[in-house]
Amino acid sequence: MSRIQAHLMLILTAMIWGSTFIVQKTAFSGEDATLDGAVGPILFTSFRFFLGALVILPLVVREKNRKAVPLSTNHIMIFILTGVVLFIASITQQIGIITTSVTNAGFLTAFYVPLVPILALVLFRTWPRIIVWPAAMGCVAGAYMLNGGNLTEFSIGDIWVLLSAIFWALHITLIGIFAASSSRPFALSFIQFGVSGLIGIVGAAMFETVDISGIINIAPEIIYAGIISVGMAYTMQVVAQGYTHPATAAIIMSSEMLFAALFAAIFLGERLSVMGLVGCGLIFASALAVEIAPYIKIRRSINKETI
């Protein structure tokens, strides 16, 4: 896969994730708008990851049959760790979405962007391109402008989403480092989905009440979040990140914030302030800068050689 193809796949992933904020919100609307509704966020998260694992199972079997060398124990342990991090990121974000707007949740998740290059550098000594640093800061500034530049207006839901950004950053970093080295993207996806689902089932049994009628009521949301968001988008993330640096991937995937705001405006009637719109533009410009900077550098080099 070329770098451009990988980046296009990440943009499609971001679009799906942005739309999934809607179903993560509507699944808990009305009578279920609190954490103690008919279906809890832990059970919802568990079901969507089990469904995602089921969707990609045929791809896992096909991949296994085509690979002569089995997965090492180290890779399996890393995949399990990735699943644990994925669950923590997902559940903290889901809890936050219930009590904040889709637009806020989408843009506050952008705080994983500056954390990814820092984690990649500290944990794995991998340096991103220079453009990544100002672009990451641009994403943070855009997210700050979302709330009108006033941090005191943050709700408890916003705080949960910010907490999730830390674990999203760790998850993206782990995927970026180990997806390529293992050359088993579908196995990685399947194991991390299965681990997330198992943790969710145990957590739901301990802290939530399982209501079958409630599950049936939000079945469409679970199906979309499981098949499309988990089964398709998270797997595309794993595949695409095998061909790009984690920091670059994080900035491209931050466009999910733009899609979240767009879908929230269309389906939920949410609206941004003028400053919020400027923040959207800043995040979009930051993502665009990461993509076009290499071409500007190449063009300059060609011009110098011509002269």
List keywords for this structure.
single chain, 307 residues, mainly alpha, 13 helices
Describe the structure.
With 307 residues, this protein is an all-alpha fold. It has one domain. Helices cover 79% and strands 0% of the residues. The longest helix is centred in the C-terminal third of the chain and has 33 residues. The model has no long low-confidence stretch (mean pLDDT 83).
Instruction: Provide the β-strand percentage band.
Output: under 5%
The radius of gyration is 19 Å
Extended strand count: 0
Structural class designation = mainly alpha
Number of domains: 1
What does the main sheet amount to? none
What overall geometry do the principal axes of the alpha carbons give? globular
Task: Tell me the number of helical segments per DSSP (H or I, 4 or more residues long).
Answer: 13
Low-confidence stretches: none
Order of helices and strands: HHHHHHHHHHHHH
Amino-to-carboxy terminus distance? 34 Å
Mean pLDDT: 83
Helix content: over 70%
Chart the SSEs and their pairings:
Layout: H1 3-26, H2 41-66, H3 73-98, H4 102-108, H5 112-124, H6 132-146, H7 156-182, H8 185-207, H9 212-217, H10 219-240, H11 246-253, H12 256-267, H13 274-306
Helix pairs in contact: 1-10, 1-12, 2-3, 2-8, 2-10, 3-7, 3-8, 4-12, 5-6, 5-7, 5-11, 6-13, 7-11, 8-10, 11-13
Task: Give me a quick take on this structure.
The chain is built from 13 helices and no strands. By secondary structure, the chain is mainly alpha-helical.
